[in-house]
């Protein structure tokens, strides 16, 4: 039997898709890239902003047209969580709905007719998913499920439920298995990774994120550890010091800002101020001068004035991020801010987004220029027609002639050119 799976959204959804493929593999499904050949079509959805949700229903229509007679269509993931049975009503060609927190039920739900499993209290934090052999030298590893933060714009707590950490012994076993299968770099996933250990659903010795990093870095074959996303609020000195000192922890970090204005941060319920954010960045840069920093910024949050936006631009100038993910605020169902009266006109938000992104681009050009002549240790991730691609510990993406080097090798690469922010190098 054949399975076609489409994955939208963040790395957590990618990991959920891997889990579903693993579980379905146990009951005889193999993956296909051709939806018209599939016996089961899964759409793993994201609902963090409005657009992907609209795309979903047109996509369901397309699949319904081309699918094999008798093939099933299942809608999974975050949109499934908060729309539940409404999806079956709106799109009768859908056979079942499986919420983001219910992934471990996949093999059961495919046997039922018109089932809806979207229980937000379901706890699969101790479920050991079937896994496929990793096809890459990099792998994803979920360390917690859900999110307790309730930022006022965000639908995620309504799609993934409350935050529960996955027991450390399970994580160490999984990471060890991955390393033995040839994985060199793992990306730890959670909505607030540095809040790890705050709550387990079973008896568990007291641990925190730093303890987890320490333990993971004992695994021999594992060479690199990355994680996303940490929350700026939980970045205490001990965490930053461990980040700096642990040689296996890559020196690139995502520190989601959202806004540079204290008034907006407060309205968002982010729990930190611009001063705290800048203080953490200063501390981090002092400890790790070569650190790569990425961030998320929302423009046009309800009530955001041009003055508030200037505060965000000011942080962009001060931090000079290496990667920026920027979004126009999108009102989401079940969130407090979606009903507020002070929504910002689309034209204003679009103009602000453009300004933010074009300034960021200029900064990136300057940063790329400053990279010329520097040498990075790069882990080769792929080689296409003799050209290797890989990242440095601090997240710089480099391409270069592979020579005799292979995928999974670490090589020293000198930056020799840059074009539109991307770096070309040669093995030093
Ligand atoms: N847990 C992570 C974020 C997960 S959602 C954190 O706290 O940073 C990924 C990003 O989507 C967020 O950082 C935010 O910038 C963006 N986002 C979330 N809700 C949004 C909304 N309603 N409109 C626009 N962007 C949003
Ligand atoms: Fe959403 Fe905030 Fe949780 Fe991140 S921390 S997932 S933005 S509620
Ligand atoms: Fe991820 Fe989208 Fe859900 S960003 S957590 S798949 S809403």
TrEMBL record:
Per the record, the coiled-coil ranges are 346-373
Which catalytic reaction applies to this protein?
Answer: N(6)-dimethylallyladenosine(37) in tRNA + (sulfur carrier)-SH + AH2 + 2 S-adenosyl-L-methionine = 2-methylsulfanyl-N(6)-dimethylallyladenosine(37) in tRNA + (sulfur carrier)-H + 5'-deoxyadenosine + L-methionine + A + S-adenosyl-L-homocysteine + 2 H(+)
Record key words, sorted? 4Fe-4S, Coiled coil, Cytoplasm, Iron, Iron-sulfur, Metal-binding, S-adenosyl-L-methionine, Transferase, tRNA processing
Q: What is its main location?
A: cytoplasm
The UniProt record gives the binding positions of [4Fe-4S] cluster 2 as: 147, 151, 154
Q: How is the cofactor bound?
A: Binds 2 [4Fe-4S] clusters. One cluster is coordinated with 3 cysteines and an exchangeable S-adenosyl-L-methionine.
User: What does the record give as cofactor?
Assistant: [4Fe-4S] cluster
**Protein's cellular compartments:** Cytoplasm
Keyword Magnesium in the entry? The reply is no
**Class of the enzyme per the UniProt entry, highest EC level:** transferase
Record-annotated Elp3/MiaA/NifB-like radical SAM core domain positions: 137-358
Cite the record's note on assembly. Monomer.
Indicate the family of this protein. Belongs to the methylthiotransferase family. MiaB subfamily.
Q: What does this protein do?
A: Catalyzes the methylthiolation of N6-(dimethylallyl)adenosine (i(6)A), leading to the formation of 2-methylthio-N6-(dimethylallyl)adenosine (ms(2)i(6)A) at position 37 in tRNAs that read codons beginning with uridine.
Name of the protein in question = tRNA-2-methylthio-N(6)-dimethylallyladenosine synthase
Q: Which gene encodes it?
A: miaB
């Amino acid at each position: 039997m054949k399975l076609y799976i489409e994955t939208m959204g963040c790395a957590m959804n990618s990991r959920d898709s891997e889990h579903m493929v693993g579980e379905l593999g146990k009951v005889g499904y193999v993956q296909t890239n051709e939806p018209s050949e599939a016996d089961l079509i899964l759409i793993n959805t994201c609902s963090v902003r409005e657009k992907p949700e609209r795309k979903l229903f047109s996509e369901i229509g397309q699949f319904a047209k081309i699918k094999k007679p008798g093939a099933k269509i299942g809608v999974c993931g975050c949109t499934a969580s908060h729309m539940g049975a409404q999806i079956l009503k709106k799109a009768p060609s859908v056979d079942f709905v499986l919420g983001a927190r219910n992934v471990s039920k996949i093999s059961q739900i495919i046997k039922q007719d018109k089932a809806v499993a979207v229980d937000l209290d379901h706890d699969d934090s101790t479920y050991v998913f079937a896994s496929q052999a990793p096809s890459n030298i990099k792998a994803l590893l979920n360390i917690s499920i859900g999110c307790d933060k309730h930022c006022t714009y965000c639908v995620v707590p309504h799609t993934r439920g409350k935050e529960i950490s996955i027991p450390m012994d399970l994580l160490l076993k999984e990471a060890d298995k991955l390393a033995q299968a040839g994985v060199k770099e793992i990306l730890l996933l959670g909505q607030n990774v540095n809040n790890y250990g705050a709550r387990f659903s079973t008896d568990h010795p007291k641990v925190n994120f730093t303890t987890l990093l320490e333990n993971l870095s004992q695994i021999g074959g594992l060479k690199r550890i990355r994680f996303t996303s940490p929350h700026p609020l939980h970045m205490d000195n001990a965490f930053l010091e461990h980040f700096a000192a642990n040689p296996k922890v890559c020196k690139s970090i995502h520190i989601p800002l959202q806004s540079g204005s204290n008034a907006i941060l407060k309205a968002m319920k982010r729990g930190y101020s611009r001063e705290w954010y800048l203080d953490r960045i200063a501390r981090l840069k002092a400890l790790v001068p070569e650190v790569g920093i990425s961030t998320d910024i929302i423009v046009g949050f309800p009530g955001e004035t041009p003055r508030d936006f200037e505060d965000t631009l000011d942080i962009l100038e001060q931090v000079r991020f290496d990667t920026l993910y920027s979004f126009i605020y999108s009102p989401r169902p079940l969130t407090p801010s979606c009903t507020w009266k002070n929504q910002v006109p689309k034209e204003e938000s679009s103009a602000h987004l453009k300004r933010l992104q074009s300034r960021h681009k200029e900064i990136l050009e300057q940063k790329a220029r400053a990279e010329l002549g520097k040498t990075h240790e790069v882990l080769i991730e792929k080689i296409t027609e003799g050209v290797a691609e890989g990242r440095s510990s601090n997240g710089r993406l480099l391409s270069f002639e592979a020579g005799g080097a292979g995928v999974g090798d670490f090589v020293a690469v000198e930056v020799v050119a840059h074009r539109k922010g991307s770096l070309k190098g040669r093995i030093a």
